[in-house]
Structures are given as C-alpha cells and as structure tokens.
Amino acid sequence: xxxxxxxxxxxxxxxxxxxxxxxxxxxxxxxxxxxxxxxxxxxxxxxxxxxxxxxxxxxxxxxxxxxxxxxxxxxxxxxxxxxxxxxxxxxxxxxxxxxxxxxxxxxxxxxxxxxxxxxxxxxxxxxxxxxxxxxxxxxxxxxxxxxxxxxxxxxxxxxxxxxxxxxxxxxxxxxxxxxxxxxxxxxxxxxxxxxxxxxxxxxxxxxxxxxxxxxxxxxxxxxxxxxxxxxxxxxxxxxxxxxxxxxxxxxxxxxxxxxxxxxxxxxxxxxxxxxxxxxxxxxxxxxxxxxxxxxxxxxxxxxxxxxxxxxxxxxxxxxxxxxxxxxxxxxxxxxxxxxxxxxxxxxxxxxxxxxxxxxxxxxxxxxxxxxxxxxxxxxxxxxxxxxxxxxxxxxxxxxxxxxxxxxxxxxxxxxxxxxxxxxxxxxxxxxxxxxxxxxxxxxxxxxxxxxxxxxxxxxxxxxxxxxxxxxx
Length: 472
Ligand SMILES: Cc1cc2nc3c(=O)[nH]c(=O)nc-3n(C[C@H](O)[C@H](O)[C@H](O)COP(=O)(O)OP(=O)(O)OC[C@H]3O[C@@H](n4cnc5c(N)ncnc54)[C@H](O)[C@@H]3O)c2cc1C
Known about the structure:
Helix content: 25-40%
Structural class: alpha/beta
Number of strands: 23
Bound molecules: flavin-adenine dinucleotide
Oligomer: single chain
C-alpha cells in the first residue's frame, strides 16, 4: 500500500489582493498555505476607512478597464442590487477649474488635449529608440500649434495636459512619454467600496493560516532548490515547497539594511535584479475633506484643478525660448504651493449628495502632504474656494490624508515609468520567477498593470503555475 503524497505547502509573503487570491486558489486544490503580512491588516493597497459621511477608499477606488477586468466581472456576476449598488460610474459631468475659477468649455481643452495625446503617440512611433519626459512633448506640441491656439488655450492646455500625473502618481517632468498614455478598455467604475471585495476574499481564507504583523526578512532556496526557507523578523524560520513573493515592487527595490528589505539566498538572478532598475514607483495620494454641509456645486462628479504655469511660460512658447521648469518641490515659501500642482477632485456632493471631496495628489506633493498631514487643509483650501466660488469657506469637520509613502511596507502607490524605463523587463522577469520562488502583484502583469485586477490576476496565475508544478 502506498502512502498518499504529503500535502504541498506554499508560503505567501504579502497579504494584498495578489497574495490573498493566490491563497484562495491554492486552497481549492488542497495545497497548504501560510500568509505572512507585515502590517496589522490584510488588503495592502486596498484600505477602506469610515468617516462622518460614510466610507472612503484610501488606496484603490475604481474598477478600471471594465470591459477587460475579470475581477469586476466576478463581482458583477454575484449581483449588483439596485438598492445597494456595488459600483457607481462617476463619469458624468466634469468641470475644469484654474486659479481664476471655472474654465470655459469653449476653450475646448478636452479636444486639444486629446490631440496632444495623439501627437505624443505619433512622436513615440517616429522615434522608437528614445524616450523623452512627457512634459517635453507637451511643450513641443504647444510650440507646433501656437499659431492655432489662443494664449488662454496655450496656458490652460499646458496644465490640463498634466492631468496624467494623477494617473501615474508622478509629475510630468519625470513621466516617460512612451508609457504616458492610458489604455481605456471600458469605463471606470467607482467601487462601493473595496472593503466589500476584500471581505469576500478574506472570508474564504483559513484565518489560522494568516499571520499579521509578521514581516518576512529572508527567502532561501534550500535542498538543491527543491524547498524554500523563509526567515521572519523575529528570526524564526519555516520551510515550504514554494514561496509566492507578493510584496510591492518598491520592497523588491530596497537595498540591504533598509527597513522592509528581504534578503534572497542565493541572490535573485541578474535578469530580475537588473530589470528592477528599469522601473520606478509613483506616489498617488489622497486628501479627503468632510464638511458639515455642501456649499459647492453639485452639478459635476469630477473636477480637474489646473496648476499655474511657471512664470514666463507663454512668452517662452511664443518666442521659441527655453521653457522654465515647473516647481516640483517646496517653493521659496517653505512648503509646496497649491497652484504649483494640478489635482483631481472627486465630488461626493455630485455623486452621492454627501458633503465630502476627495482630492488626488501626485509625487512629490503626496510625499510632502503624507509627512505633513497638518498642512493638508491649508494646501487644499484655495482649490475649494475656487471650486465653490466662495472666499469664505468653512473648515472641514474631518481631514483624512493617506499614508502610502510613509508606510515602510508600501513606500508609494504603484509602478510608474520615468523616461527610458522599460516596464516589460521586470514584468517578464518576475513572471518567470526563480524556480519555486514565485512573484505576484500589480507590478508583475501586463494586463491590468498597476491595478487591483492586475494584482488579482497575478495571484491567480501563480496559484495555477504551482498547481501545475505540483502535478495537481
Ligand atoms: C492611492 C492609490 C490609489 C489607487 N487607485 C486604484 C484604483 O482606483 N484602481 C485600481 O485598480 N488600482 C488602484 N491602485 C492600485 C492598487 O491598489 C494596487 O495595484 C493593488 O491593490 C496592489 O495589490 P498587491 O497585492 O499587488 O499589493 P499590496 O496591496 O501592496 O500588497 C502587498 C502586501 O505586502 C506587504 N508586505 C510588504 N513587505 C512585506 C514583508 N517583508 N513581509 C510581509 N509582508 C510584506 C504589504 O504590507 C502589503 O500588504 C491604487 C493604489 C493607491 C496607493
């Protein structure tokens, strides 16, 4: 009589949606698993909090690309009750504001910026071998069209084009032109809220196999690579047949000695370590303002707040002179100035009749606000004055500022491309993995890169790969 083969065991490092999905799928095939999560909660970049007026997502808010989003499909297949909807398409009326108030739709900024995006695509196709900062192409476009645009259009387009910063989480002087454009495979839907999606997943886990507040510090391939041993921060070691490293890309990019660093033994192949040099990490952040009452218009769902162009910008475009760089960090006033950065506003008054506004910010502003949370309202107040058309605006009853850049186990928002970066290299290298050391997360997928559904799909992929490897 032959004994049944002992159950295979997989250790999952990181309890975000990628790690959780991997665990669920492994469990379905009776593969034993343990999840080690550094923080005191599961979910990683899915984090829903409750304020005075309801729930807010500090990390992901939207289901992106809903024509090609398997997580969205799965959620919707479970029903979307009319009296308790799981999503809201917040793509109704949108308004654009600058320092002086509402920007007239007759400036046709959307049409011009759409043409500009096309121009950037054409430039990229014509020059496949090099990559410029996206902002340089914005300037080139404005120079090439300056006889066709009014001064007001040139000034406002230069800043409206920066809206992409609120997608990538980095400023457009740092953003790669090649990877600036956003694929749009379907409408984006606000998820109401991601805690529901997370709970549906975590409820499927065996809670005894989940270890919170347990950072992993080392991963070693042992027994000629047939087993993997992981080391926890307290020095404890555990052995498994495989490991799925589902920590953020920013953690894989740390150097020895930095908080959160994971030591791999033997070292990861150069294919992986070198590829991690060709990608960066952005810092999208959020400031949530809750007020007593609604005192601003409810006739729009989203707003773009345009920054001021640097002094002399228009003249430089018209005279073909060097265009001044825009301010990235602190100005001479000691901290970042409101009108130096574009912002994206989600108007809860327009979407849900609630007196709240969610303001999205990008690097380096996010880093500053997340480490100086007490100035967040002062920074945002001029935007709210413009948005409401009132100088005398009440203070919020609650200000919530995200913490992604300050969390040593996150260190920002998601992968982002600087000029010259090649996001494909790390994706291919991490997808290949290193024997039974596997990788999952938003930074390891092509479809849904940077997104929740991408991270989820990567967990599914790694579970499938191990199930096949184990011959199950
Ligand atoms: C502000 C913001 C807005 C976003 N908006 C959207 C959006 O609207 N739509 C969308 O689709 N996506 C959005 N995203 C991206 C999305 O949230 C992520 O792509 C996705 O949640 C990543 O999941 P993950 O499992 O790959 O990583 P994570 O969720 O980061 O999980 C990784 C986990 O690893 C843990 N960890 C790190 N180091 C260790 C260690 N040494 N040991 C153990 N555990 C460790 C971390 O604590 C973390 O919990 C947003 C992200 C942010 C920050």
